[in-house]
Specification:
The complex is a heterotrimer of chains A (264), B (297) and C (316).
Chain A: E1 17-28, E2 31-42, E3 46-50, H1 57-64, E4 72-77, E5 80-81, H2 87-93, E6 95-97, H3 110-118, H4 128-145, H5 161-173, E7 179-183, H6 191-206, E8 210-215, H7 218-224, E9 227-232, E10 235-240, H8 242-245, H9 249-256
Parallel strand pairs in A: 3-8, 3-9, 6-7, 7-8
Antiparallel strand pairs in A: 1-2, 1-4, 4-5, 9-10
Helix pairs in contact in A: 3-4, 3-5
Chain B: H1 2-28, H2 35-52, H3 59-88, H4 92-118, E1 134-137, E2 140-143, H5 144-166, H6 168-178, H7 180-185, H8 190-216, H9 223-238, H10 243-263, H11 269-283
Antiparallel strand pairs in B: 1-2
Helix pairs in contact in B: 1-5, 1-6, 1-8, 1-9, 1-10, 2-3, 2-4, 2-8, 2-9, 3-4, 3-8, 5-6, 5-8, 6-8, 9-10, 9-11, 10-11
Chain C: H1 2-30, H2 37-55, H3 62-83, H4 89-108, H5 129-147, H6 149-160, H7 162-167, H8 172-198, H9 208-221, H10 226-242, H11 246-264, H12 268-315
Helix pairs in contact in C: 1-2, 1-5, 1-8, 1-9, 1-10, 2-3, 2-4, 2-8, 3-8, 9-10, 9-11, 9-12, 10-11
Classes of the chains: A alpha/beta (264), B mainly alpha (297), C mainly alpha (316).
């Protein structure tokens, strides 16, 4: 096992899978929060994970990021198994995430919070000075693209909820990740704010960023994702083209309750 | 046999002290660091009153003073310091930290007052106001004070356990410990129950202070701090929130300490509890009877 | 100046030593490690330095005796950090308080080596207050570096949200280890330097009251920066001197300080200053905001005017 945890090598992975989660199970005591889920996240696409509250969505994210241990199953990132790699190393490998709740540091300004993401030491072989310049440009670029230029000197408590969530996303993007995991990024946002975020994610995909989006908003999932997984009771209940997946009876029943029709 | 009698007496006192602390910790989420100085100051109040009245206080009066002073201090600490901190803290972690810091500050006040009053010398209830008699008991000596301690210990220990298990207010209190939000939705008045729990805890601390002062002969201003850490070890050993665990822990520690005193010079006795605490925290942080916390995301 | 200095030498010394003691608890606290092992480290540093000085036949340089204390404390801190690595918050705090008290019990029972209850005397050295000040300045310099830029942000993240910190690629466990080692260095420096300045040490000096004093300094001054520890050290050392009536009730008033601060100003004096600064910045930002909005309005009005004007022209 351990010889696989050697840092990045030149060898390109055989498959173009960024993340390969195979038969993942996570148990808390006797509770089977995640029970044998397989997900294959291919490069350059937005994957969606849909499911009602308590279905195990956030838990599987915690498992993927190694915040909670797996009961069984295997995890591979860019062709490298990482079942015994600590979370902080994954971040350096290029796995960035946002959390379900706003997790900004209250004592820092928006700019400082975003810089925290830029600080992640990803060895790229360039000189320190060049890296610092590049980092600065990247931060400025991300602040611009997320429309946060106006708020850089503010502290989180002075911002609206929607703006706070944008800062979270900005902080994850400046990590220049290979894979971005988003845990309900638009929860509690207004319609127009949601559209803005969706546009931002599509824009990132155009630049080749692979994403896994965990969300409630069915419409947004159908509009934004290339491939959708649906979960309930810790298991996958559907997978495939988003518009088709949400129409399957199992998903409709589990997620929307009986009597709901996607084509209504 | 003599050791057993001494261990049970000491265990009863530890139990009274630790049960109160466990009660407020398990239900109100308050680790009251001032619990030790409440214990000490209650005993000191008895001593002070005794001096003022010219040694004419009977044992029962000393114990009563201990209970009343302890309950009063405990409730004041809750209303004036601990509750405001809980109310103002921004999250659970900082509440926990602020409660501990505030408690340490609070604990320092009675300790400093008693240090000034006694010039840091030990204080004791002078003999004369009550008589110490010893009886033969299965080949060992047992004093009337030890008998009082046993009786009080058994009665109060049982009463608290029954109160928590059987009575409406006890159940309500336990529900706060499980989930305070749900408890308040169910119409449980946390303020009044909190005050009641703090009063019971303080009263038991005061009583144990008076009893320990009588049976050991003397206390110092710092006695409470050491006992507080012992009680912490006891509660950790038994598992936070488990009254039965606390009782077992109290007698276990008392037994271990009594054995050590019987076989050595006794100067290392305080290291037993600290070592024990350390060991339990490492091996089984949830305690003997504690449950592992279930994590939900 | 010199006369004043001679008269107040003890207080000057006490200020710098208190500063170091406070750092031994504040430094780990800044990284979210709520440990009181600093007091144990103080005791280890003091006793080791004293033993080295008293036991050797020749005059020992302070660098050697204090250095020995630091070494012992750092080794013990590393071992402690490994043992308590799974403990957090309250449990860690209580476990480390018991470690401090175990060290005190050991000092009591050390027999000839530690001098038992009466402690050790005649710890003579040529240490000057100047060296102590140099140590404090160097410490402040290093801490300033840890409070700024990338490192400062990372430490904030480790303290306020460890789960977030690991997701940001920060090796939180390594920071926690550094917290313990730092506490060992600061605490043992304080103990070693103090024992050389005062020439005596006894178990009474390394007990629970030291925890309260250190905590008072941090809570009054503020826990987020060494500046807070410095402010607190000055106040706690000099206030009793200027308020003579306080001297007797010093510990009572410390207790009250801590209680009041814990309820009303968890950030200490430094926190109050920070808040005031934030408020100022915020007012400025809002002002700029309004100006920008006003400009936009003015621009809008100009457009309306222009449209109006053109309409008028059309009407003609």
């Amino acid at each position: 096992m351990t010889q696989h945890t050697v840092p990045p090598t030149v060898a390109e992975p055989a498959s173009a899978l960024v993340l390969d989660a195979r038969d993942v199970a996570i148990h808390f005591g006797g509770v089977k929060a995640v029970d044998g889920v397989t997900m294959e996240i291919a490069e350059g696409k937005i994957f969606g994970l849909l499911g009602p509250n308590g279905s195990g969505k956030s838990t599987i994210l915690a498992g993927i990021t190694r915040l909670v241990p797996l009961k069984s199953g295997s995890l591979t990132f860019d062709g490298r198994p990482y079942d015994d790699v600590p979370t902080f190393k994954l971040a350096r490998w290029g796995m960035a995430r946002t959390f379900q709740t706003v997790r900004l540091l209250g004592d820092l300004t928006v700019e400082q919070n975003i810089l925290l993401g830029a600080d992640v030491g990803r060895s790229s072989g360039v000189s320190r000075r060049a890296a610092a310049t590049e980092r600065k440009e990247c931060v400025a670029d991300v602040i611009d693209r997320t429309g946060l230029a106006k708020f850089v000197k503010w502290t989180p408590s002075e911002l609206s909820y929607g703006v706070q969530r944008r800062v979270e996303i900005a902080r994850a993007i400046v990590m220049q990740p290979r894979l971005l995991l988003l845990d309900e990024p638009v929860a509690g946002m207004t319609k127009s704010e949601k559209l803005e975020i969706a546009a931002l994610l599509s824009d990132l995909r155009a630049q080749g960023l692979t994403q896994l989006l965990v969300e409630h908003d069915v419409q947004m999932m159908v509009d934004t994702c290339d491939h959708l997984y649906a979960m309930n009771f810790g298991k996958l209940i559907g997978e495939g083209v988003p518009a088709d997946v949400v129409k399957t009876p199992a998903v409709q029943e589990a997620y929307m309750g009986k009597g709901w029709r996607a084509d209504a | 046999m003599q050791e057993l009698i001494n261990a049970v007496s000491l265990g009863c006192i530890y139990m009274l002290f630790a049960m109160g602390m466990s009660l407020v910790w398990g239900t109100l989420d308050v680790l009251n660091f001032a619990h030790g100085s409440i214990f000490m100051f209650s005993a000191f109040s008895g001593f002070y009153l005794m001096q003022e009245t010219g040694n004419s206080l009977p044992l029962a009066a000393l114990l009563l003073v201990g209970v009343v002073v302890g309950a009063l201090m405990s409730v004041l600490a809750y209303q004036l310091v601990l509750r405001p901190i809980l109310r103002r803290a921004k999250d659970k972690d900082s509440a926990e930290r602020q409660i501990l810091i505030g408690g340490i500050g609070l604990a320092g006040i009675p300790v400093a007052i008693v240090q000034i009053q006694t010039l840091s010398n030990p204080f004791s209830f002078r003999a004369g106001s009550f008589e110490v008699a010893s009886y033969d008991f299965l080949g060992a000596r047992i004093s009337n004070i030890q008998i009082v301690i046993w009786v009080v210990g058994v009665l109060l220990g049982t009463a608290v356990v029954l109160w928590l298990r059987r009575s409406r207010s006890g159940l309500a209190l336990r529900s706060i410990g499980v989930d305070s939000e749900v408890a308040s939705l169910m119409g449980i008045d946390q303020g009044r129950l909190g005050v009641a729990a703090m009063a019971v805890a303080g009263g038991m601390a005061g009583l144990s202070g008076a009893l320990l002062c009588v049976s050991f002969g003397a206390l110092t201003a710092e006695s409470g701090d050491v006992l507080l850490l012992k009680a912490f070890a006891i509660i950790i050993l038994g598992g936070v929130g488990s009254m039965l665990g606390t009782i077992i822990g109290a007698f276990f520690l008392a037994g271990a300490e009594t054995l050590l005193i019987a076989n050595t010079s006794g100067t290392w006795v305080d290291a037993v509890s600290f070592g024990l605490l350390f060991l339990v925290l490492l091996v089984r942080p949830q305690g003997i009877l504690g449950r592992q916390e279930v994590r939900r995301t | 100046m010199s006369a004043w200095y001679d008269a107040h030498l003890i207080l000057v010394q006490a200020t710098f030593i208190s500063f170091l003691v406070a750092l031994s608890i504040q430094f780990p606290m800044r990284m979210g490690v709520f440990s009181f092992a600093g007091v144990a480290n103080y005791a280890l540093g003091a006793y080791t330095a004293a033993i080295v000085v008293v036991r050797s036949d020749e005059i020992v340089s302070p660098v050697v005796s204090v250095g020995a204390g630091v070494l012992v404390a750092v080794v013990v801190s590393l071992i402690l950090a490994l043992i308590v690595r799974r403990l957090r918050g309250l449990y860690l705090a209580m476990a480390t308080i018991s470690v401090s008290l175990i060290v005190q019990v050991i000092a009591f029972n050390g027999g000839e080596l530690t001098g038992g209850a009466s402690g050790m005397f005649g710890v003579i050295s040529d240490l000057t207050i100047g060296s102590v000040i140099v140590v404090c300045v160097v410490a402040a310099g290093i801490l300033t570096w840890t409070e700024r830029g990338t490192l400062g942000r990372r430490i904030d993240a480790v303290r306020d949200d460890p789960e977030l910190a690991v997701s940001m690629g920060i090796n939180v466990n390594r920071y926690r280890l550094v917290a313990f080692v730092g506490s060992g260095v600061f605490g043992s420096l304080a103990g070693g330097l103090e024992v050389l300045l005062r020439s005596t040490i006894s178990p009474v000096n390394v007990g629970f009251s030291l925890v309260v004093t250190a905590l008072t300094i941090i809570i009054v001054g503020g826990y987020r920066s060494w500046v807070g520890a410095a402010i607190g050290a000055v106040i706690v050392t000099w206030l009793p001197f200027y308020l003579q009536a306080m001297e007797r009730y010093q510990q009572v008033i410390y207790g009250l300080f801590v209680v009041v601060a814990a309820i009303f100003v968890p950030g200490g004096l430094l926190g109050i200053a920070d808040q005031a600064r934030r408020r100022l910045v915020r007012r400025q930002l809002e002002h700029e905001d309004q100006e920008a909005a006003a400009e936009q309005d003015a621009g809008g009005a100009a457009v309306v005017d222009a449209v109006g004007a053109s309409r008028k022209e059309e009407a003609r």
